[in-house]
Amino acid sequence: MRPVTLIILIFSNLLAISTASTWPILPHNFTTPSKQWNAGDGNKIVGGQETDIEKYPYQVAILNDGRLFCGGSLLSEDRVLTAAHCTDGRTASDMSVRAGSSFHDKDGTIVNVIGIRQHPNYTESTVDNDISILVLESGVLHPGPTIDFVTYPTLGLGNDPTTGADCIITGWGTTTEGGSISEKLQVAKVPIVSRSDCEAAYGSSEITKNMICAGIPKVGGIDTCQGDSGGGMLLKESLVKNHQIGIVSWGYGCARPEYPGVYTKVANYKDFIEENIK
């Protein structure tokens, strides 16, 4: 397997936040190849722009000891959808969620995580079944202008999203590979990449039936990056409000022309979500 970057930003008491920081070695020695991208002034997520939580009120920041390390989407007042690689090996008592804020480090409401429902078949070596649900302290969050919930495909296993369909990605991740996180929420638009093109980029054995891909083929420049892990990829045009079809999972670097971003295919996990949203 080639070196892979799980799109996750892990903070600890021993890691300082700076553009000079070296990202920690991730599960099975996934490393970030060194390459800088010209993201342009004000562009975060990589190729995105600043936005307000009122436009994407389902987005939350997942905190470890008070510091951002992943994103997630509100499924209900006390459930958050995120990636399994964000929860693997972690305990609920170390985690909390900031909801209802355009910023990952201020405003909004902080809610304690009291449980982790990680997919039992999550596989670290392949990043397959990369989905988890966080159980939040109940009675804290209530729907409003800055708090809302995602919907998800309810037909179960099915076809991949239409190639070229525009999707919305949001998060506070880095501007470049190994760069600085964004203080304010960022948003970008990316099109779905066909399964055949994604397999051609990564190799057919790397892209399982539980993964979908998005990006701008042969152009790049727009993508999720470190710190965006666990956040949602939603269809831009959908008859269903806040319709989430992907979870930010992994990729080779960030926004590279030859490598689209890889996302967990939410449609394959209808039963898992419904079993754990109760």
UniProtKB/TrEMBL annotation:
Question: Source organism's superkingdom?
Answer: Eukaryota
What are the boundaries of the signal sequence?
1-20
Q: Which residues form the Peptidase S1 domain?
A: 45-278
Q: Which GO terms describe its biological process?
A: proteolysis
Q: Which Gene3D superfamilies match?
A: Trypsin-like serine proteases (2.40.10.10)
A single Gene Ontology molecular function, please? serine-type endopeptidase activity
**What CDD domains does the entry give?**
Tryp_SPc
| UniProt KW keywords | Disulfide bond, Hydrolase, Protease, Serine protease, Signal, Zymogen
InterPro entries reported for this sequence? Peptidase_S1, Peptidase_S1_PA, Peptidase_S1_PA_chymotrypsin, Peptidase_S1A, Trypsin_dom, TRYPSIN_HIS
Which family does the UniProt entry place this protein in? Belongs to the peptidase S1 family.
> In its UniProt entry, what is this protein called?
Trypsin-4
